[in-house]
């Protein structure tokens, strides 16, 4: 199983300039590849192969006056940018043919230097290394200081250097983990749990535990409103506007980092304490189009469930997702009678058949657990069949945009 471990980088001024050149060169090569493909399509010609693009856009381009500066960065970075373009087209065509799961994927678009996220990737061929003193040595960039939050379990296969919208730099390492070793880290348990996700409480467990919703965005709205108002009053193109934009980006980054940290801690705790976990397959995209959209996005249910999925796969736990149309809030968990739909403001109700008084969310969590087949034994529950590769939500350190802490 492949996972990502991310750590904060602290490059000096010269290294920041070198990274900016590398980001720019990778972006130019990607855009040139997309333009070459589009020109071939409009001319009715077959798409150029990866080898042809590499020879024309990198090898021959370095010899020209207009693209001679491509030689200032590692060739591996440019080759990986071409691979990204190839992968983007491959995903697009697979989506057109219906071979790719999820929402339809559009054709690759040109990248901009103003994009919020810039990245370059170094594979083993680039001969990057981690020095004995813990610095990350990158070709044509130098030894960059790393803020290590833990030790890498194995030797990484590649490293991606990322610059986020706030201007922070991160090193994201791809690690091949050993399933047996990971599973041995988890304590043995036969507990099973059902989870009902909501807005009043982020999660209510079938054992009666209620986990409050932190509402990170709601709590930060006052500061965000002030920062966005200041941004709207700055003149476009001015330095003051750039500073105000950075202030807004930092405020949003703090909210996202705090939410991700909360999801990591809660998902790791649930995986550690329970052998079997049942959740409802919520239609988050549909709920995000209702009047509850801001609260749904603030809760971040989809991110939390993705964390449960890959951590269950990693540590040998069982995760079951029940159908979103299962009437968990309408069914009496005591006698099984479906008592009909109830408005959201009804938080307690009495079963018309057996007279049991139910807490709406706790009753739903019990029904989620029963519907998943975890009430008797976690061994009979189906296991998620798909492998999980290089999860972007995997843990990192110090506010990485795709992960925060050890799991």
Q: What global shape is seen?
A: elongated
Q: Count of DSSP helices?
A: 10
Based on secondary structure, the structural category is alpha+beta
How do the helices and strands follow one another from N- to C-terminus?
A: EHHHEEEEEEHEEEHHEHHHEEEHE
Largest sheet: 8 strands, mixed
Measured as a percent range, the helix fraction is 25-40%
Structure summary, number of beta strands: 15
Give the low-confidence spans: 376-389, 391-407
Our estimate of the beta-strand percent is: 15-25%
Mean pLDDT: 88
Whole-number radius of gyration?
25 Å
Q: Give the N-to-C terminal Cα separation.
A: 15 Å
Topology, please?
Elements: E1 2-10, H1 13-42, H2 50-59, H3 75-96, E2 118-123, E3 129-130, E4 136-138, E5 142-147, E6 158-163, E7 169-176, H4 179-185, E8 192-197, E9 201-205, E10 210-212, H5 216-232, H6 239-273, E11 276-280, H7 284-287, H8 293-299, H9 301-315, E12 318-322, E13 348-350, E14 357-359, H10 360-371, E15 389-391
Parallel strand pairs: 1-15, 8-11, 11-12
Antiparallel strand pairs: 1-5, 1-7, 2-6, 3-4, 4-5, 6-7, 8-9, 9-10, 13-14
Please give a structural write-up.
Helices cover 39% and strands 18% of the residues. A hairpin with a 6-residue loop joins β13 (348-350) and β14. α1 packs across α3 and α5 (216-232) packs antiparallel against α6. It is an alpha+beta fold. The strands form 3 sheets. Strands 1, 2, 3, 4, 5, 6, 7 and 15 form an 8-stranded mixed sheet that branches. Strands 10-9-8-11-12 form a 5-stranded mixed sheet, sandwiched between helices.
